[in-house]
Amino acid sequence: MIPSRFAYAAPESAEAAVALLAEDPDGGRVLGGGTWVVPELSRGDSRPRLVVDLRRAGLAGIRARAGRVHVGAMCTYADLLASDVVAQRLPLLRIMAQGVTGGRQILGQGTVGGSLVAARPSSDAPGAVVALGGEAVIACATGERRCPALELLAGAMETTLGQDEILVGFEFPAEAAGVGYVKLKRGVSSWPIATAACLIQLDEGGRWSSVSLVLGGVAPTPVEVDLGGLLGTEPDGEAISAGARLAGTAVTEPWTDELAPGEYRASVAGPVARRALELACADAIGRKAADGS
Amino acid sequence: MTESLVGAPVRKHDGDVYLTGRATFANDISLPGMVHLAIVRSPHPHARILGIDLEAASLQPGFVDALTGEQAAESVDPIPHALDPANLGGNHADVRCLALGKVVYAGEPVAAVVAATEGDARAAAGAVTVRYEPLPLVLDAEEALAEGAPLLYEEWGTNVVIGGSIGADDFDEVAQSADRVLDGELRIHRGTSAPIEPRCYLAEWNSREELLTFTGTTQNPHPLRSTLAAALRLPERQIRVVAPRQGGSFGLKMYAHPEEILVCVLARMLGRPVKWMEDRRECMLAGGREQVHRFDVAFDEDGRVRALRDRAISDHGAVAPGHGWGMAFVNALTIPTGYAIEHCHVRYTVVATNKGPWVGVRPFGKDAAALVMERVMELVADTTGLDPAEVRRRNFVPAGAFPYVTSSGLELDSGDYVGLLEQALERLDYAGARAEQAAMRGEGRYLGIGLGFELTPEGGDIPGALVGGTDTTTVKMDPSGLVTVLTGVTSPGGGNDTGIAQIVADAIGVELTSVTVVQGDSSLCPYGFGNISSRSLVAGGGAAALAAADLAERLRIVAASMLHSEPSQVAIRRGMATLADDPSKAVPVPAVAHAVYTLGYILGPGVEPSLESTRTYRPSNIRHLPDEHGRIQPFSTFPNALHAAVVEVDPETGIVELRRHVVVHDCGTIVNPGLVDGQVRGGVAMGAGAALGEELSYGATGSLLAEGFKTYLMLRASDLPPIELEHQVTPSPFSFLGAKGAGEAGFAGALSAVFNAVNDAIRPLGARLDRTPASAPNVLEAIQAAWAG
Fold this sequence. Notes:
The complex is a heterodimer.
Chain A: E1 7-9, H1 14-23, E2 29-31, H2 37-43, E3 50-53, E4 62-65, E5 68-72, H3 77-82, H4 84-89, H5 91-98, H6 103-109, H7 112-118, H8 125-131, E6 135-140, E7 143-148, H9 149-152, E8 153-155, E9 158-159, E10 166-172, E11 178-185, E12 192-202, E13 208-216, E14 223-225, H10 237-250, H11 262-292
Chain B: H1 15-19, E1 35-41, E2 47-53, H2 55-58, E3 63-68, H3 69-75, E4 102-103, E5 109-115, H4 118-126, E6 129-134, H5 141-145, E7 160-166, H6 171-176, E8 180-188, E9 200-206, E10 211-216, H7 221-232, E11 239-242, H8 258-270, E12 274-277, H9 280-283, E13 291-299, E14 305-315, H10 326-334, E15 343-351, H11 366-384, H12 388-395, E16 404-405, E17 411-412, H13 417-428, H14 430-442, E18 446-455, E19 471-477, E20 483-487, H15 496-508, E21 515-519, H16 536-562, E22 570-573, E23 576-579, E24 582-588, H17 589-598, H18 600-603, E25 612-617, E26 640-649, E27 656-666, H19 673-692, E28 723-727, H20 747-762, H21 776-788
Parallel strand pairs in B: 1-12, 10-11, 14-15, 20-21, 27-28
Antiparallel strand pairs in B: 1-5, 2-4, 2-6, 3-5, 7-15, 8-13, 9-10, 9-12, 13-14, 16-17, 18-26, 19-20, 19-25, 22-23, 23-24, 26-27
Helix pairs in contact in B: 10-11, 11-12, 11-20, 13-14, 15-16, 16-17, 19-20
């Protein structure tokens, strides 16, 4: 039950949505999956005059082209789980979607774009999208602009999207890599407290040739851990511990909410990162062995 | 052979109605002309109200009317206290349906707005402007006790709602001859009841008849009627209270809530039905449990506890007219639970702070008693080096000692607490679990095993209050042989109505399907106290059995005439009255019933020609006259249970995984195993949830941070291992059938066992957790403190 009255529009393209938003000086509220915005409206926390629902805007496609994979902003977690392209090219997204809290209703309702635009620190998708090197594709009055996913996020519950801009989707480089994803939460119903998403590539000699490690939940926006210094080393226990230590110190502005204080999040960042690194290394080594055989 | 319905795992007699979505809950009811109430609540935890402007709200779509505290006070009196602390030496505060002058917690009702739809009402409520002058606030009970603390009720000159002590104050004396003493502190966090269905009230004023009908989520229709009558200045006879089916209550839906009064005031004012549906955020304002305990224990090297001194400070939040503070009293009364400790002294202090008030929450203070005693047993085991199970074995009231009078004056009815322990340890394979624990520690994994005994005094009967252990039931049979039971006890959804139907069907000798149970209507049912203190089956069922026996007696007399025999020869079973010595001679119960009504002059000249009886069941072991130590005995049954939990703690993250949970439960005679198991399993889930993280936390500015199930983390099914539940049956010699009640079962022992298990797991790390919940942040903090120390 939403107390305030509002106009509702379900435009049939991103361009039309942008035009609608541009016409509304007060700023309409954009509905992705609605798992955050609808409860917010029900609580009366926001009272927009216009709600723009993107369900008919044609933004739910998943396409592989020219070595890259495009994931529409309106793809639900269930869409991600059903996609062969995601399973083969973006397994991290699949693992992330499998762990989303809330059962079938949320899997079928929540969208990956909505999660990024809600910009909630305690959320699964942002860290994974950033770790995958996702590039945000944004529809705006002048057509389209692009930016790295992390630049889409300005802070907790804050994006860099203009009032008349719509997130269309993400483009991912989707290179083969060892994948590790670890999520820490307080119970089945809990939002993520800390996530670590890790992608690792090994060179011919089995040494790290690329490492992407992104922490989610621990800070207002995802934290990219710079592991450049470890490139070229063997992915052994020592290197992994070094990576975990770097992750622990990377959280300079820990996030506090009702479920966990910042000190806790900063404390668990290292262990969570280490577990993700271990998984990613094992996966990378496994892939390499499979490629070699 | 007679197949007894009592003891059979009969399914809920109306389970199909729930399963197929046909059950009518309060919010399913819509009346012609009905309008909706929304409440303007204070955003400030402590402030003077300077002015309320309804102008903007009145321009909102669908607006009907609005009410301020000052306007309401013209026609409505303060809500009468269900248990006024002033009557027991505490302080009195007037609580009204809308705040008058000042607010004392964030969320306190300040104004009421009525509009055409629920949405319109909420939107219009959002447009009400209230000017406040914020006052200094106090959010911690111990700070509220300090000199110079802000006062919620200035006229008291203190923030103490009530204080008192139970037991003889002889700790120091006894401790001198004990081998050792230890002290400890336990901080218990704030929690709530969180039923799936929040509160919902609907009031209708019939201006022609001047009759008020209140329909809503209440556990206690008759006491609520008394409350409404007093506040609204109406005679009770002009009020009818109806409680439809409910989605759980857990104490939340006991009476004396401001909103109960508000819907009635507005319905009378507007001449239209008014409905209020609570939202989850509002529901979370009802607090409970938050306490600090500081205890001293005197014990001998053999683990026997000689004396206990406990100081409990309860963070009550604002004063409410309900029963909430009583939990602090029951907490003190329940200590030392089932342990034979002769010298216990418990001082309780109930303190007002600027938080939402305490409202009754299962298991009504008995949880803290268990937690304190179970911590004490663990600490004694720690200090003496004895096994925690052995320490309990040595301290339990022995099976042969019942009835046993505790240091607080409770007369424990029956039990075999050591028996529970042995059965639980066997089910757990305690030695095996300890071996596994040792082996896993070698691998750097931290397993913990925790025990938790619970004693839940039930059938509470508070002198002078409309909280009774007795209850009344009418049983009647119509000429077609169908039975209707009208009882003063209500069901929050747990299904005691099915249990009562089983008892009646057995007592008369008819099929279960011919029995209908009517509950929750103050005009139809005999005066009763509703569902409180796990007494519905004992009291309502006991009264039903007495009334049913009256009917059976008349049926046997008339059947004997019809069969040309003697009443003593007639047995009624499964709807047939049969002669014991000649089973070929039989007459169906409907024919007998019809004869009672129509052929009484021929077949039953000495029998009242009616098949209706109203009887009251009164437990025999309640004692309200104080004994020589000033103690009363306000509870009639004492169900108990022993829980054993196995957890694994991740020392890097503090995450606790509950791996096993064993519970052996004793509620005396079991009328319906399915219903009892449901209560125990629900209680375990609630207690384990409290142990691990369900927490009503407040921010520094006094606003509630938990406002739904993403911020109040109840356990989901997949958080729990299968609950391994077994029963022991030690019938009560005092109650009907020997039953003891199971409505509060499971919580206290699960809370204690899981909390102890977490402490057991982190002990090798040098860590100790002295506060609940054992949430990951709290557990990790304890581990880090041990490393730092």
